[in-house]
Amino acid sequence: MKQPAVDTNLPLLCYEGKIVVVTGPLRLWRALQEIKHHRIAGFDTETRPVFVKGKRNKVALLQLALPRKVFLIRLTHTGITDALKDYLEDDQQLKVGVALRDDIKALQRLRSFNPGGFVELTTLTRPAGYTGEGIRTLAAQILGGRISKSAQTSNWEAPTLTEKQLRYAATDAWVCLEMYNRLQKEKKA
């Protein structure tokens, strides 16, 4: 289904808070201890694009957004540890995002797990009257802003991520958390 165009006059949404890049198993364990203190996290993944038919790369980055901090987990450095597997299976820890099916499948290619606590935002947006399917369209409809996709096709496996990549990745997960919170407020109103 073709997505409606996003109005380029809308303000640009960009996460401006603290970003923590996680590059080792011990740092990942510590990050997960903090993340578990929050019942809900914005969720997204990034994979280096492939321009050859039939080839695919592994997920390179997992983003988890809290209200005041976004963790960018470099899966190419950490892998899916036992602690991360437990988190991905935990039904009590909500992980909210858009187009989660593909993200989950890609993560399961790294390590098998039974997904728990994943909340597909489009299952909440449709009953609320929003027509968008993709993150850009939904951000425009729900938050009244646009998100840049200019770093989407960059190399997520690079030894060092650029500031542009960090902001892009953090914004995608943060926007999911913001949309979830807005939808919950609208539901209560």
Produce the secondary structure layout.
Elements: E1 18-22, H1 25-35, E2 40-47, E3 59-66, E4 69-74, H2 75-78, H3 82-89, E5 94-97, H4 100-110, E6 118-120, H5 122-125, H6 135-143, H7 163-188
Parallel strand pairs: 1-4, 2-5, 5-6
Antiparallel strand pairs: 2-3, 3-4
Helix pairs in contact: 6-7
Describe this entry's structure for a reader.
With 189 residues, this protein is an alpha/beta fold. The chain has seven helices and six strands; from the N terminus they run βαβββααβαβααα. The protein has a six-stranded mixed β-sheet, with helices on both faces. Helix 4 (100-110) links the parallel strand 5 and strand 6 (118-120). The protein is globular. The two termini are 31 Å apart. The model has no long low-confidence stretch (mean pLDDT 91).
